Every structure is written in structure tokens, then in C-alpha cells.
Structure prediction request, 71 residues.
Amino acid sequence: MSIAQVKNLQRRLGNLEQEAVEELNRACGHGLWASLGFDALDTLEDSDLRARANYYYGQLQTVRELQQVLA
Prediction:
């Protein structure tokens, strides 16, 4: 993989990470999920919000794993 490809991938992963964080904040109504982790999502009463939060939390975890590999 060339340096340009790696930089482009890192930029796109950063965009996905930002999107996931924003959507998690929107679904939870606050940023406490960041310190509480996955358990905070299970306390959401609305099943649609809980499903959305779980999706974006999974996306966030995947992005962070990929970022670690590229670092």
C-alpha cells in the first residue's frame, strides 16, 4: 500500500469515527457513553435508538481497530 493510499484510508477512517461518535451522542442524548462504554447503550429504552446506537458503536470499534493496525 502506498503512503498516499494509507493517508487516504486514515482520513476516511477518521470521517467514519467522527460520524459514529456524533450518531452515538445523538442516540444517547449525551456523551457519557464514551466513558461508560457498551453498557450505556443497553439502558436506552427506545428499541430503535438502542439498535442505532449499537450499530454505530460497532462501527466505532471497527474503525478504532483498523486505526491501530495502521498506526
